[in-house]
Specification:
Elements (H helix, E strand, L loop, with lengths): L1 H13 L4 H19 L5 H19 L5 H25 L6 H26 L14 H23 L6 H12 L8 H17 L2 H28 L5 H13 L2 H7 L4 H20 L8 H17 L3 H12 L3 H29 L11 H13 L6 H8 L4 H7 L6 H4 L6 H4 L2 H14 L4 H11 L1 H4 L26 H6 L3 H8 L6 H17 L10 H13 L10 H13 L20
């Protein structure tokens, strides 16, 4: 601790001429950011925030930025500040006019040297030492790490088990037990539910079956997170870094709560984590691990799981495969193995599902943004629709119904309205009707469109959006199919405080900050001229981009859960050496599912 203070003191002394300017920049930014973010921070938190900004501002002002530094940090600062101020525009306290532009430029200019200094600190981090794999087989280390995480999660399982149910969970159980499969909920996950719970359902032992399923899903997620720590350890991370990973996964109960919810997201995001780790190994060895049969098999398995556990898995895998073609050693395997696999998956989820009647009818999810924007105009300016436009859009949903159903944070009320013509919208003509009216209104109502979009995607782009507690009580679904949440600790000891304490510890950082943090990691990799390592971040960038552009639903952290899973590995990738041997750093540990 003393050495850290000494280093900070020496650093500030060395750049003492910049101290006044850095103090003004950091002080103004902190004050304006908290003012516009509408957040009240305690004095210790504010001082810590200001101190970090001050040190980074000193570092950022000490030298003129290169063109690469200026462009990367300038764009990131402008994006961050736009969405910080955008919430005020949505709330009506600020308009998209010259004053908005002036405040945006001011806040971005203040953030720029702070962000530049932070990037300079990160780009000069020393690389991890040459890795030596721990003694013993990998499976033994994986089992140990998984057991540690399960022990840390056990109180949540005992106090909030057997599983957590929401509306989607009840629909999944309905399909698993009573039929009516469709890929609105991944069929693979629904069949998994049926395989495990069907015997208990028939025997009237649903509570016992739920405890079994909850423990199995929790163990699977714990094993995926444990593998990420094993992966770090086998590539040069020290015990302190691994210990901090355990502290994050076990100390924040959000991870344990999410592992118990009956939906596909914990497993999908866990697979996405493994997918990103494989891609990091692939980028480091420039694709040569895909020349080996074991590497191709691992990648195919991960790709199939990714595609069948969530609808957006296929486009993510397709874009990643296109990016992998830039690595010459991987190109042949992509064209001869992965491309046929992706085509086969598309045939199964397309024509085959269609012939079996398994395709989802919820096609409106992909058109959430234009639907929401038209609904906003309908609620605020119904006279904006001409008689012809009103007639055209009425074939999808009448203007009056859109106005009544509009909700700023989600398009769900519009899609589920009794007057929404889902059958017509499922056709090409239905989508053309929507887009034609949307395009006609765009020139005169672009501000309304922008406000509607910002309100809908606030949780994914606004740093002021509080993460809150993601324990998901779901009281409305509790008791469905005989599955009721029970506090075993209360029953055995009479102590009710543990359950509440675990829920209080589920508070997490604002979800958008995780995305901006990963963008910052990408900027650092670019500044260090390690652009190919961005391949490991690409799947997560695509998830975020899909949410920002498509906005399929209101904000829930489950859609960005992979970002939370990836936090320790994201920090480690900034320290890991860029190069590796042909099969990765540790041949036995590289890219194992």
């Amino acid at each position: 601790m003393l050495s850290s203070f000494s280093y900070a003191e020496a650093f500030v002394s060395r750049h003492r001429r910049l101290v006044p300017a850095a103090g003004v920049v950091s002080g103004l930014f902190c004050a304006l950011f908290l003012l516009w973010a509408c957040q009240v921070w305690s004095p210790p938190a504010f001082c810590l925030f200001w101190g970090i900004c001050f040190i980074c501002a000193v570092r950022g002002l000490c030298a003129r930025p290169s063109r690469r530094e200026g462009l990367a940090c300038g764009v990131l600062a402008a994006v961050f500040c736009f969405f910080t101020l955008g919430q005020n525009a949505v709330a009506g306290t600020m308009q998209f006019d010259l004053s908005f532009l002036a405040f945006w430029v001011l806040l971005s200019a203040l953030l720029f040297p702070i962000l530049l200094g932070l990037c300079r600190f990160l780009t000069h981090l020393p690389a991890a030492d040459s890795p030596t794999a721990p003694a013993g087989p990998l499976w033994r280390q994986l089992a140990l790490y998984t057991g540690i995480i399960l022990v840390l999660w056990l109180p949540v399982f005992l106090c909030w088990g057997p599983v957590r149910l929401d509306v989607d969970s009840v629909q999944l159980l309905e399909q698993a037990f009573h039929g009516g499969l469709n890929d609105a909920h991944p069929i693979l996950y629904t069949l998994l539910l049926r395989l495990i719970l069907w015997p208990f359902y028939k025997l009237g032992l649903m509570e016992l079956g739920a405890y079994l399923f909850g423990f199995l899903q929790m163990t699977t997620v714990a094993a995926m997170l444990a593998y990420s720590l094993v992966w770090m350890r086998r590539r040069g991370a020290g015990l302190i870094a691994v210990g901090l990973g355990f502290a994050l996964f076990g100390g924040c109960t959000m991870y344990a709560f999410q592992s118990l919810v009956v939906w596909k997201d914990p497993l999908f995001n866990g697979v996405l984590l493994l997918y990103c780790l494989f891609l990091f190994d692939t980028a480091r060895c420039k694709g040569e691990n895909l020349q080996q049969k074991s590497g191709v098999i691992h990648f195919v398995v991960l790709t199939l799981l990714l595609c069948f556990l969530r609808g957006n898995g296929w486009p993510i895998a397709a874009v990643v495969c296109l990016a992998l073609c830039a690595l010459r050693p991987a190109r042949r395997r992509i064209l001869t193995v992965l491309l046929p696999v992706l085509i086969g998956v598309k045939l199964i989820t397309g024509p085959v599902y269609g012939a079996l009647g398994l395709q989802s009818t919820l096609t409106a999810e992909a058109w959430a943004v234009p639907l929401q924007q038209l609904a906003y105009v309908a609620s605020s300016e119904p006279e904006a629709f001409s008689p012809q436009q009103a007639e055209t859009i009425a074939r999808v949903i009448p203007v009056e119904a859109m106005a009544q159903s509009y909700s700023p944070i989600t398009v769900d009320p519009v899609k589920t309205s009794s007057e929404f013509n889902a059958e017509h919208f499922a056709t090409l003509q239905g989508k053309l009707d929507l887009l034609s009216v949307w395009a006609q209104l765009l020139p005169g109502h672009w501000q309304s469109y922008l406000k509607a979009w910002l309100a809908e995607v606030a949780g994914y782009v606004s740093p002021r959006f509080d993460g809150g507690s993601y324990s998901f009580p779901y009281e409305g679904s509790n008791g469905a199919f005989g599955i009721t949440s029970k506090d075993i600790v209360l029953g055995l000891t009479g102590w009710a405080g543990l359950r509440d304490e675990l829920e209080a510890r589920a508070v997490f950082v604002p979800p958008a900050l995780m995305a901006y943090g990963l963008l910052l990691c990408g900027v650092v990799q670019l500044l260090r001229r390690r652009a190919r390592l961005l391949l490991a971040y690409l799947p997560l960038y695509l998830v975020w981009f899909g949410l920002v552009v498509g906005a399929p639903n209101y904000m829930q952290i489950r859609y960005l859960l992979a970002f939370a899973y990836f936090i320790p590995c994201a920090l480690f990738t900034l320290l890991a050496p860029a190069g590796a041997s042909k099969v990765g750093i540790d041949e036995k540990a590289a890219s194992i599912v």
